[in-house]
Amino acid sequence: MIDADIARLSSIPWAAKLINDKRWTPTPSSNRFPKPTGEDAFFAETLDTSRTIRTMLTLKPAKEEDGDLAYKELLVILDLGDGLNGYPQVLHGGFAATLLDETCGGLIQLNVFEKVKRLGSQHAMNYLTAYLNTTYKKPVPVPGPVLCTAKIERQVGRKLYVHATVEDGTAQNPRAADPASTDFESVVLDGKLQPRAAADGYWLNDLSGKGIAPFNPNPAGYKVFRNVLDYGAKGKLLAVRTEAWLTLQGDGVTDDSDAINRAISDGNRCGPWVCDSSTDTPAVVYIPSGTYLIAKPIIFYYMTQLIGNPQSLPTLKASANLEALALIDASPYSNQNGEPGWTSTNLFMRQIRNLIIDGTARPPTAGFQAIHWPASQATTIQNVKIRMTQASNSVHAGIFVENGSGGHMADLDIQGGLYGMNIGNQQFTMRNVKISKAVTGISQIWNWGWLYSGLTISDCGTAFAMTNGAQSNKLEVGSVVIIDSEITNCPTFVDQAWTTSTEPIGAGQLTLENIKLNNVPVAVKGPGGTTVLAGGSITIGTWGQGNRYTPSGPEKFQGPLTAAARPAGLVENGKYYSKSKPQYESLGVGSFISARGAGATGNGDTDDTVAVQNAINRAIRENKVLFFEHGVYRVTNTLDFPPGLRAVGETFSAIMGSGSAFSDQNNPRPVVRIGKAGESGSIEWSDMLVQTQGGTAGAKLIEYNLRTARGSGIWDVHTRVGGAKGTGHQVAQCPTGSVNPQCFAAHTNVHVTSSASGAYFENNWFWTADHDLDDWNSTRVSIFTGRGLLVEGRGTWLWANGVEHHALYQYQFSKASDIFAGFIQTETPYYMPKPDALSQPYVRQAAYNDPVYAAGQSAYGLRVVDSSNVLIYGGGLYSFFTNYDVSCSSPDAPNGRRICQNRILSIEGASSFQAFALSEVGVEQMLTINGRDYATWSDNLSVYPNTIGYIKYNI
């Protein structure tokens, strides 16, 4: 492009003389190139026409100067059209001033770019115009060529004084003319680290910085958003001018470990061995594109999101001498006593997104693991690529999980290593995971239950191994469900150890459904290398092993199954439909509306109802995405999310329902209402919380009414009722054993109404707090909420979904149809049965088809009433306590008899139901159909819970 500009302007004698002058170097005009952020759109787009600026060429001095400023002068040659007229054939005076301002800014920007290179920092300096004093000396004729000049005259502190001219090009010596001139003062930052790194084209970086942590001890000084470059990371060291604009590339030479750790830990945050949890120190730690050398482990903190630029994934490259359990460590072990940094089952609210982790520099026999992730609810890893050595003697592992109560991962791509993943956890959902060229693709260390969907494993010795404990006849893997997956060029798909005589009797259960094998000789291997299921190049319909229940009672099974047909509305190309959380990487900042910029405060005190609703309505009207900067947006009436809304938070921005509108449980009212009855359209909502404050017994946190278009979804949106600062539901207000009306906090957590269809949920935790997250001792609390997740609609997806601690039930599917659920997880309230499900504060309401309980009963984990095609792909229904006493679920219980409540799963009426790998803890009767008990704990004792591999009823 610059060559064409030079050719066109060289036909003008005075311009050709300047272009050929060795004292000047032609360079592209960066403001003429569109940028993802929308920067320079005026000159790059609006004025890029045949009637405005037809050609534009910048000339910078050929020789740089020493000192703070490399360039003191700049020339810009332009060919202007008649679309810039003021009077006939005269340049508009306002546009002449615009040219002066742009030329002065171009000179300063040129120095910014040079300072980036000199300092090795993207944030060398920024600038803005303080004033522009213009003198008009004579008209500038157009159309035709003009010359703009800019020269720095002096620098005083942080101010630069620049003199500029616009010349008409008709004089013999055009630089002597002065038809318009200006004195330009620009405030320039001094090149030291500034509070914000420069924009890089991804909206999250370019828009963030306004988020607040309102209940932090220092809300004005605490930074929610952190760019690692602001903390000294050199991952974007080299500045490289392209024809379009300045780009910055990572050097991969400087050790950036300390800088990234500073970005994570800054602000007296909740670190390892210091606090178990905290809600007032959230952080988004942003990593721009580039390569970052890592020689020390990156230590994760509580309520942190580590996010790379999805437009061009940044690389964290392990140094050859990295000595660590993992490059990213979510819970390091103490060198002194071996204690983990956090209690793994309380390790909530964390995310990793958009990274490449490169371990190839580590020797094959030296330890390397990309991520250590002993995580629990409301956590996710998404869009991460891991690269390791492909040597046959490798001891590397991509992801290591040894504990926790998770969790969710999606969109992973792992190559090499001894293990793609070496993992064990109570329960997990993993979707769209690609592993290749590892010795073992996935090593399942232990679990209670696990759902894998969309595995793509190729060129591994064994795709999936679950044999732990086989030698001692004490299997450590409870149950595994793998669906909609493809395995290629692996000698063995699943290596497992279950037989009809292995112990525990409910462990080692396996379900395979819709699995395509390409050149895989053994589909399922058994003890001693036997072939349990032959492979080849085939598709496995449905196959399983373990314990199942039939109308005639329990039996062990191993072989093909006649599973329920998948409802057409739940599938796409034969697989269960799924959609990853949108990150809007193709949108610039102009496509977003800021909630705080639109007038909401997010300070947890001001009533933001009107301001937030106005921002929502504006986002719909202008077809933009609504960005909720981190904060607590207190509302005193229902917020309506109309069809078409796209809303995204910043490390779990919260909407908090408060006040008398939500106080009456006999007149429940939603805090957030998604569509109104009869409305249809789309919804995208991600990375937020909904909670309540004070006595809100009539609050429905989320009501979903929308007839939803395919492609919609609710991702990483959680409800957190109590247990956090600002809610009025902490230890001081809601101590255990109390029944305080101010701690009656929600009528229903989430209600998918009968008018709704197509509701898509992924990685959601609908939680009533059992302990105070901001208490140093994680002290337990008594907070009462009525109903968990009530689904009455049609066509619902529940991927990686948990519902806990509600008084009447956790899940209820009532007159619903076509539900995909996996993995789902519940906990019974810890206070039960004192009060029990009959006498707790929420009265039964026939309008909600609430269950009828006898005295002494505890709440159901899952109740299915007159609902069809309810399909469960892995579930855990847990009851750990009786009146806060955990001894009823002790791992050391004699003969494994752990009884905390009688019933937890009830199927009623004209329902059709299928479940694979359903685990329960602390329950005597595992399966109740229309009041009759069909399965007892003792027939299904697994690694700790009790597990039924297959239930099929009326379907």
TrEMBL record:
SUPFAM superfamilies named in the record: Pectin lyase-like, Thioesterase/thiol ester dehydrase-isomerase
Residue intervals of the Rhamnogalacturonase A/B/Epimerase-like pectate lyase domain: 248-463, 592-769
InterPro entries associated with the record: HotDog_dom_sf (IPR029069), Pectin_lyas_fold (IPR012334), Pectin_lyase_fold/virulence (IPR011050), QRT3-like (IPR039279), RHGA/B-epi-like_pectate_lyase (IPR024535), Thioestr_dom (IPR006683)
Pfam families for the chain: 4HBT, Pect-lyase_RHGA_epim
Record GO terms (molecular function): polygalacturonase activity
Position of the signal peptide: none
Thioesterase domain residues: 90-170
Name listed for the protein in its UniProt record: Hydrolase
Organism: Didymella rabiei
Lineage: Eukaryota, Fungi, Dikarya, Ascomycota, Pezizomycotina
